[in-house]
């Protein structure tokens, strides 16, 4: 049996603004038209402000755990679509890339018969999905598992054992932070330690996912090229409307991979 790894991987800044007002008599009321897909203009009329505040309050209450606030997020986005403040889009195509983790697991199992999957999540990725959505026979591994499995000299080291166990490594999504760390050889969590100790004689796929501004930064292309130069296989980005925050580039999970029986590690970051 081949084995596969599946790995999915805020700050608050002061808001400076200038308030201005003007009155124009005899002017027709402005009716907005839906912007191009991916655009996320300001809600100048405050039509969805109340729902936005409900969503932000939910995030604060739940320590920025987006999985606990999906209904509030959905209501806010629906309001924006109803008022032509964003292009209409199916909810299944919106969101943070890590929310797709259960779907990725499902698709891999449907595509590769008898595949065995282990999932590694970073601390941030853990906020964006519910463990209950992952099949019970798919282990979800976190940084703490590295230390819980090692007690004394001679005990197995988890990130080494995972690299031995898996036949295929998929990092989806790979955010800008972990991409930069991987390109620089840093390994400060279970995901990156497993990647650093990977046998490059076996397939390694990565699916970059980040906001468009981060994707367009010159250093991003350099980091992606470093990973390619090592023989890692990139799953190209597609443009998506991001969950509340705007437009972004996201790995679409449709990249090629070896077909057949097997297993692997699937890892990822919160984006």
From TrEMBL:
Residues 247-260 have a biased composition (Basic and acidic residues). This is Flavoprotein domain-containing protein. It comes from Culex pipiens pipiens (Northern house mosquito). Residues 96-232 form the Flavoprotein domain. Residues 247-271 are annotated as: Disordered. Pfam families: Flavoprotein. Belongs to the HFCD (homooligomeric flavin containing Cys decarboxylase) superfamily. Gene3D superfamilies: Flavin prenyltransferase-like. Residues 261-271 have a biased composition (Gly residues). The lineage of its organism: Eukaryota, Metazoa, Ecdysozoa, Arthropoda, Hexapoda. Keywords: Coenzyme A biosynthesis. GO terms for biological process: coenzyme A biosynthetic process.
